[in-house]
Amino acid sequence: MCGIAGIYGSGLSGEEARAALGRMAAAMSHRGPDQEAVVPLAEIGGGVAVRRLALVDLEGGGQPIASEDGRVLALLNGEIYNHVALRRWLEGRGHRFRTRCDTEVLAHLYEEEGDGLLERLEGMFALAIVDLARRRVLLARDGPGMKPLYVARTPRGVAFASETAALFASGLARPAPDLAALDVGLAVGFLPAPRTPFAGVEKLVAGTALGIGASGVETRTFERFAYRRDDPPSSDAEYVDELERRLDAAVASHLAADVPIGALLSGGWDSSLVATLAARRLGRPLRTFSLVFPDAPEIDESRHARLVARTIGSDHHEIEYRAERLPEILPAVVRHLEEPMAASPAPLSWLLASLAAAHVKGVVGGEGADELFGGYEWFRSSLPYAFRRAMPSGPARWAERRVADERVRRWLRIAAAPDLRAADAEWKRLWTPWEKRRLLRPGLFRDGPDLEPVQIGGELAASCRDGVQRRLASELRGRLADGILLKHEKLGMAHALEARFPFLDRAVVRLAERLPSRLKMHRGREKVVVRALAERHLPPEIAARRKQGLAFPPYGWLRPPAFPGLRSLLLDGAAGGGPFDRPAVERWLAGGPRGRLDDRRFAVLVTVQVWWSQHFGRG
Q1: Containing domain of residue 343, as a range?
Q2: pLDDT tens digits for 322-380?
Q3: How many domains does the structure of the chain reveal?
Q4: Is 256 left (phi over 0), alpha (psi -120 to 50) or beta?
Q5: What whole-number distance in Å separates Cα of residue 555 and Cα of residue 602?
Q6: Is the dihedral of CA 59, 262, 475, 603 positive or negative?
C-alpha cells in the first residue's frame, strides 16, 4: 500500500531533516504514486515520510494521520482488515474520525491501548506510531511477515524504512556488505530476519515490535505461531467446513477496497480457491492474471488456469515467460528485492506483477496454504530420516565430501546433523561451508553456523508433536516470511501493486495451528483438508491435480538461451571485484565435481554477484 520511513534522534535541524526525509521518500517513489508527505518533527529529532498507494479512502486517507489532538501520528504500509469493527469500538469510546482510512484507526487505538494495539490488529502491516508527547516511536511487522520494515541504528540516530534504499538515501547509513549474513544466504537462498545483506541494517522479525525512545530501543514479540491441540477435536468434515467459512470470510475482507482488486491464478488449488471465492463475492467479473510457459509445456499450467477462469467467468490476462529474457530482467529484480534470493522464483513473480499492475492496484493470491497445510514434497518424505537412524553421524560426515550425487550428499548431511531441527535445515541447504570456502575470494568466507538462523526454536519447537509440524513450522517461520512473502511485497510494490493473501488471515492461521497433521499430509497425499475444499468448489479436473508450485522450467538457468547471459553476469562481475573467485567459479561451471551444480545453486551465485555489483561495483 505504501512506503514509510522516518528518522529518530538525529540532531538534524528542521531543514536538514526535511531534506533527508525528502530523499527517503524519493527513493521509494515506485511504492506510492498517489501521495508524498515529508514531515519534520523536532520532538523526535527527525521526522517521517510516506509514499502512498491509495486503495482505501482515496481522497481522505493521506498519511501520516494524526489523533484528534495531534499528539499521535500513524503511518501504515499494508491493510488492517478489521478496521471497521475497531472504528465502531473507538467511536463508542468517544473518538472522532475524519477519514474512512484504516490508518486513522491506528492513531486512535494507540491512544486507548498503547503498544497493546498490536494484539488487536488483523491484517498485513508494517507500521510506525509516533508518540510526540512521549518522544517515542513504535515500529511493528505483522505476524506472518507479509510486510517488511528495515531499521539502521547509527551514531547519528535511528532510521527506519520500507526499503533499505531509503535508509541509505537518508545519509545516516551507508551500504556495506554483511559477510556473515551472505554466508547464510549462500547456504539457504534467502536471508532470515533480522539479517539483511547490509552491515548495520536489520529487518524486523515477523510478529515483533520495536519501541524507540530516550532510554534506547526495546524489542518484544506480540504474535507467535505455535501448534495447539484441538480439545475436543472436530470431525474431518467439520474441519473442512470451518476452513471454508474462515477462508471465505478472509477473501471477503481482503477484497475490501475503493479500487478493483484482481487475483493471481495458476490453476492449482490455492489460487483457484481464492479466485473462485472472490468471484462469488464480486458483482462484476474478477480480473485474473497468469503466467504462460510456451517453451516449457511440461510445467505450463495455462490450460488449467484458463479452465478456472472460464468456470468463474473472470476477465483473464496472461503474460509469457521466455528464458532469453531472464538475464535482461534479473538485475531489475535484484535491485528491487535489495537482497540476493534464490529460494523462490522471483523473476517469474516480477513478470506477473508487471501484468497485474497494468490493470489493478491490488491482487489476492494463494500464498501461505502450502506452509500451513502441507503442500511441499519434502514434508512427506520419511526415508532420509530412516536413513539417519541407521547411519552414524561420524561416517556420514566423512562420506559427504566424497560422494558426487547431490541427493546422496543431502541424505548424508541429514544423517550427520546433531538433531532433527538441524536435519530439517540440511534438507534446504544449497552450498556447504567447504564449497563456499573454495568459491569466495580470500578474506570473504565466514565459517559461521550458517543453518542455525533458519532452525525453529523455543516455544514453536516445543509445540511440534511430529515431523510434519516441525517441517511446516520451519517453512512458515523461515522461507515463507523472508523469502516468498518478501519477494511478492517488494516486486509487487516495484510496480505499485499490493498483493494480499487470504490463507494468511489470522483466523485461517489459527485453524492451521490446531488442525491434525493427518489432515495436512496423509499416506503421500498433500494438503488433505484443502483437497477436500477443492473438491467442493473447483472443476473436477482441477481438484484432481497434484501440487505443482511456481517454478522455472527444468534447468532453466543452466541451459541456453538463459545460461550465456547469466554466466556473463556472474563471471564479469567476479572479474570486476565481486565476492567470488573467478577461476573457482569457472571450474564449477565447466563441470566441477560431477553432479554438484543445479539451477538453485547456480541461481544463488548469480543473484549474490548481481547484488554485489549493484551496490559495491569493484569495491
Answers
A1: 236-375+469-543
A2: 999 999 999 999 999 999 999 889 999 999 999 999 999 999 999 999 999 998 877 77
A3: 2
A4: beta
A5: 10
A6: negative
